[in-house]
Amino acid sequence: MATDLVHVVDDDPAMRDSVAFLLGTEGFAVQLYEAGSDLLNRLAKPATGCVLTDIRMPGIDGLELLRRLRGAGYRLPVVMMTGHGDVPLAVEAMKLGACDFIEKPFDDETLFQALRSALERGGPAAAEDPGLQDFVRRVETLSARERQVLDQLVAGSTSKEIGRALEISPRTVEIYRAKLMAKTEAENLQELVRWAVLAGLA
Hints:
By secondary structure, the chain is an alpha/beta fold. It is built from 10 helices and 5 strands. Strand 3 (50-54), helix 3 and strand 4 form a beta-alpha-beta unit. Helix 7 crosses helix 9 (170-184) and helix 8 (159-166) packs across helix 9 (170-184). It is elongated and about 50 Å long. The termini are far apart.
């Protein structure tokens, strides 16, 4: 099926090959590109499938690639691969229209789930998504301090940085973080950030 095509963009040959092998075992069709410019030059119009791109690359990075794809009229769903601690970049990517991001190193199922979701949606998640409305309602149940910690997490701050900003210990930050994760029902920071961006909270 054409919708199962994944355009993989990564400047690391080993990463490209391993992702291609992994996706192939799951039945995805794969096209590999070593740079954003490579994808832009070779992508057909109208294009099918989705784009899986690293966010940090020499030349055209993931964010610039996303800007250029949208500028050229491509509506392909884009999933970003980010390194640990790239939350601010991931937030920016989501605001530019990426439909998801996954943190390296990721497990197989996380990757498959992100790509299947992207291919099914065909673009950024709609604001009327019922799951999103539920998330907004759950955020409203947070205490003032939990909301402050949420805002700082989504901005990419570490527990130490949040502790300094709010004048509380990193351990206390972790307690608030655990509480807000439970209240919002976010499975991990990635999901919390995704929902927060889609809800306009970031």
